Inverse folding.
């Protein structure tokens, strides 16, 4: 996302006049999810300054800071587990724009994880996982893309140790054991991965308003 992120964290970039992370906070609050943990690393102090304790949005925010090197998705979630508690929890990537209705997610999935999948975008046409009868697997005739929205049980991270590691290997292991459910969302969803995609989504969102 450089040069846009040279002095601003990606989650504070704006779409339709609203920062990416503000949209997520409002969406979570609208779904009745009011206890939030925000993981941050690069320029994270700007996120804390922008959102504060969350009271302006009707939520309560705690922060999980990654000191030193970025921990990747798996390591970042593991680092935040002491703040998340023992119940299943929802994770939403900050760098997506979507109208997915978060209130329809299962609060306590039977599996170790429940992932929202989307139709493959042009920049990721190979997809990630195969969805069949509500269950996800690594292989299949038509893979879908992981949206960055998922509900996880803390047990998914059993055996992990603090440090930098990705989330995908944990999900693949759980899939092999039949422990990942999923759904296919066909509404609006965009991954904000480049300045060009940010500009494109801004045009789309402005036209929707």
């Amino acid at each position: 996302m450089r040069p846009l992120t040279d002095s601003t964290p990606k989650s504070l970039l704006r779409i339709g006049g609203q920062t990416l992370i503000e949209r997520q906070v409002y969406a979570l609050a609208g779904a009745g999810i009011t206890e939030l943990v925000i993981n941050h690393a690069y320029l994270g102090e700007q996120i804390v300054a922008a959102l504060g304790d969350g009271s302006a949005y009707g939520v309560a925010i705690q922060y999980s800071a990654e000191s030193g090197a970025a921990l990747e998705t798996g390591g970042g979630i593991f680092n935040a587990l002491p703040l998340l508690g023992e119940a299943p929890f929802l994770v939403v990537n900050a760098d997506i724009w979507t109208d997915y209705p978060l209130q329809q997610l299962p609060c306590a999935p039977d599996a170790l994880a429940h992932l929202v999948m989307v139709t493959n975008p042009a920049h990721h046409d190979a997809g990630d996982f195969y969805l069949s009868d509500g269950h996800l697997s690594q292989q299949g005739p038509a893979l879908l893309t992981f949206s960055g929205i998922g509900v996880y049980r803390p047990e998914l991270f059993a055996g992990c140790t603090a440090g930098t590691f990705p989330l995908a290997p944990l999900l693949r292991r759980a899939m092999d054991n039949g422990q990942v459910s999923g759904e296919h969302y066909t509404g609006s969803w965009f991954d904000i991965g480049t300045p060009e995609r940010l500009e494109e989504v801004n045009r789309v969102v402005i036209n929707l308003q």
About this structure: The first strand starts at residue 14 and ends at 15. The chain has a mean pLDDT of 92.
